[in-house]
Amino acid sequence: GHNERKQKVSTFEETKALALAGKTISDMAKERKLTEGTIVSHLERLVEERSVDPHTDLAHLMPNVEDMAKMQGALVRVRTEDGTMPLSPARDILQNRYTFEELRLARLFL
């Protein structure tokens, strides 16, 4: 149920509210005084918990189609048997053209 965590708004919920308001990752990071990496990790967790739907709630954060296709292609190629997609080997395939944050973001939409 909903009552297990009756604390004040969690850090994830704060990030979620900003994301749902259409803020960019850098805006969210500035507003929350956190790194962009931390914001991306919040988004990863929110997506994992099905608290946000990346394709509707986070569509404004999606990298452009061309970059997205390249990054996702690399991520799919390095997918392990348990379904994880390690970033470093994907980044190598892409000759380090993208940051880890960009790759993590692309991975959210897979």
What can you see in these coordinates?
The structure is a single chain. With 110 residues, the chain is mainly alpha-helical. It is built from seven helices and no strands. Helix 2 (25-32) packs across helix 3 (36-48), helix 5 packs across helix 6 (87-93) and helix 5 packs across helix 7 (100-108).
What are the key terms here?
110 residues, mainly alpha
Rg: 15 Å
Number of helices: 7
What would you call the shape? globular
Average pLDDT rating:
93
Query: Count of DSSP E strands?
Result: 0
Q: How do the SSEs run, as a string of H and E?
A: HHHHHHH
* Structural class designation: mainly alpha
**Regions with little confidence, pLDDT below 50 for 5+ residues:** none
Largest sheet: none
Note the gap between the termini.
28 Å
Estimated share of beta-strand residues: under 5%
Query: Helix proportion of residues, in percent?
Result: 55-70%
Describe the secondary-structure layout.
Layout: H1 11-20, H2 25-32, H3 36-48, H4 54-57, H5 65-77, H6 87-93, H7 100-108
Helix pairs in contact: 1-3, 2-3, 3-7, 5-6, 5-7
Please outline what is shown here.
The protein is an all-alpha fold and 110 residues long. The chain has helices spanning 11-20, 25-32, 36-48, 54-57, 65-77, 87-93, 100-108.
